[in-house]
Amino acid sequence: MGRAAAAPLSVASVAGAKRPRRLRRNAALRSLVRETRLSPAAMIAPIFVISGRDRREPIASMPGHARLSPDLAALHARELASRGIGGVLLFGIPDEKEPLGRGASDPEGPVPTALRRIRDAGAQMVLAADVCLCEYTSHGHCGVLDGREIDNDATLPLLADAAVAYADAGADIVAPSAMMDGQVAALRAGLDTAGHSQTAIMAYSSKHSSALYGPFREAAGSTPSFGDRKSYQMDIANGREALHEMERDVAEGADILMVKPALTSLDILARARDTFNVPLAAYQVSGEMAMIEAAAARGWIDRKQAALECSTAIARAGADVIITYLAADLAHWLTEG
Ligand SMILES: [Zn+2]
What we know:
This protein is an alpha/beta fold. Helices cover 39% and strands 16% of the residues. The longest helix has 17 residues, at 152-168.
């Protein structure tokens, strides 16, 4: 004797009138109700700048990217602007490093020179400059040393000097990334004193200590010669502390708050979106790109779809602005398919 067959499940009794798949039936419907749309105008492309002319040094761990002399950086920026990309974020690699990283504020250094060249080239885009000492210090730390400790307060005026040098050279935005306490206030005071009250500050507010910065350190030659950055960058385990850093930065005068790495900070972006009414930026860092590139090179994932997915998730979590090495590719895919 077999058991009686169960009565067929009535979909209507479970789903009732609610059938979310109705709006997924075809591409037109999906497009109509899409909640998050990427735009090249809300993207910033990082550029690594070196001294000299007509110099291009490929970066092995960042396929398709190179360190560029200011003249080539200007050509590159103009090309990015022509693709509709909203801005560039400049990092400088000086010829010589020393313990105080004073090269960061050299008006003839790679970043101020590139800023002037990009302005002269007429690129219609936002020019942002990273403000830190790690590319300029002989020890590779983001601040100056007192023995083997990072001296927070002695670092602040050096960061402010660098920000003023970049504002002098035409930066619209300066972006302090050293994770020193009080760095936003120090930059704001320095900029205002120098007559740059209109220069905006995009604060690296929530910057976790991360293995995902590996390729960047090769690109910028900024691997610390001893120890690590855990005494100033945040513990990856901490989210409430990230919100606290953001509160502090808003109080100190930050115009834009940034989180980094992006993909490991989606919860922080979402919480920040509910908490702060200033623009939020997320930095899709070199290791995030490297994971996509390396897996795609092996045929393990679809490069384009993975890049679009990750960027869309970053925007969905709350980022208004995405800083990404994939900006040129994303702009191409978004405008030409
Ligand atoms: Zn740094």
